[in-house]
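step=encode ok
step=design start
structure_in=
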């Protein structure tokens, strides 16, 4: 076995989802748009949920799971644009609301929960820091991976000298030097706060906006190791700033960061495949690597219309394309026969159970068979 190369960052850590799919019963997965901006959203959402509930009943959803979802769905429209939940008769496993749009809604009753929408949402939550800078200090906002937001301020030097002046005569140079020194000290304070915040939340993106000279000084004061993460945009915290334009630019940078992370993963996969080393693509090779707990990052394109299935047992590594293949790995000494589930869901469950990260790939053209993996180690000599 050989370790080669470094896997890019960007796989979604799924350790906190390990217990999902452990119950010997069917799961119900719900992904719905709440449309909170529509007129009279409360009654409309209540009717929307009643209709969805009847559809789930028609698909065989357990009454206990539906009762769990009833409690979760109450007032979901008040909390976000998207309602996502997973339940089975034993418990409500997940209930979240998000901002944004739903590309395709899901009402699914199946052997395993469908976690791809959740993982796709989480990988869009890029941890980042935004600093709105001027010569008095900065407003700093930090957004963690789970969407938790922290904000604060960095105070500058203050006092009488906060900008250059032109008094004339022999003292002009002295005033200018004092101003530059004050700005530099303020920039150092801002940079120290940014560095500690970035390290604490593992921020992948640092956005600076505001006074041109102070932004330049802050950038120079940041450690070189953070240089590639820094992006400077127009705007700041001064009165009259076009906040909508500034926020739009931040959103664009975040979307670019998400796309770049996916491209980086796919590029690494192609590199490993070309070297016949730490990469596999296709259903059978990927499931085989998952069986060996060999996968570092599982790449999945989850087409909602994909009818392919696989089989799984009690252990996360008990998976197979056929029932016999899964049974050969884990005979029925655990008291449970292998079960059939959606291929993407089975692969994701195996990745979670073996400590692999997962990256959802939005384009089928980038991952034609829908499954691939960057491996921890290769079987090659």
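sequence_out=
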């Amino acid at each position: 076995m050989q370790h080669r190369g470094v896997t890019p960052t960007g796989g979604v850590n799924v350790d906190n989802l390990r217990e999902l799919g452990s119950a010997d019963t069917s799961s119900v997965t719900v992904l719905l748009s709440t449309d909170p901006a529509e007129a009279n959203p409360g009654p409309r959402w209540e009717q929307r949920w009643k209709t969805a509930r009847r559809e789930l009943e028609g698909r065989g959803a357990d009454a206990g799971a539906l009762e769990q979802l009833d409690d979760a769905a109450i007032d979901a429209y008040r909390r976000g644009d998207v309602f996502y939940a997973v339940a089975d008769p034993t418990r409500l496993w997940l209930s979240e609301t998000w901002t944004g749009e739903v590309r395709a809604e899901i009402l699914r009753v199946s052997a395993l929960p469908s976690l791809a929408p959740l993982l796709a949402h989480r990988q869009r939550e890029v941890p980042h820091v935004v600093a709105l800078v001027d010569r008095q200090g900065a407003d700093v906002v930090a957004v963690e991976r789970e969407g938790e937001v922290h904000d604060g301020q960095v105070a500058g030097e203050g006092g009488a000298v906060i900008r250059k002046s032109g008094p004339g005569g022999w003292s002009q140079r002295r005033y200018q030097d004092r101003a530059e020194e004050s700005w530099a000290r303020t920039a150092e304070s801002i940079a120290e706060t940014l560095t500690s915040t970035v390290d604490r939340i593992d921020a992948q993106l640092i956005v600076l906006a505001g006074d041109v000279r102070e932004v330049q000084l802050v950038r120079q004061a940041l450690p070189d190791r953070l240089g590639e993460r820094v992006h400077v945009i127009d705007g700041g915290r001064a009165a009259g700033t076009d906040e909508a334009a500034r926020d739009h630019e931040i959103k664009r940078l975040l979307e670019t960061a998400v796309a770049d992370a996916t491209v980086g993963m796919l590029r690494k996969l192609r590199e490993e495949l070309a070297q016949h080393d730490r990469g596999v693509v296709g259903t059978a090779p990927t499931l085989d690597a998952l069986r060996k707990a060999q996968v570092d990052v599982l790449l999945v394109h989850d087409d909602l219309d994909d009818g392919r299935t696989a089989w799984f047992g009690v252990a996360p590594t008990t998976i197979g394309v056929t029932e016999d293949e899964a049974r050969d790995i884990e005979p029925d000494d655990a008291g449970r026969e292998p079960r059939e589930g959606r291929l993407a869901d089975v692969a994701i469950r195996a990745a979670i159970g073996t400590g692999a990260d997962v990256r959802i790939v939005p384009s089928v053209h980038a991952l034609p068979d829908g499954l691939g993996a960057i491996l921890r180690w290769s079987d090659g000599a």
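step=design ok
step=annotate ok -> Residues 158-170 have pLDDT under 50 and may be disordered.
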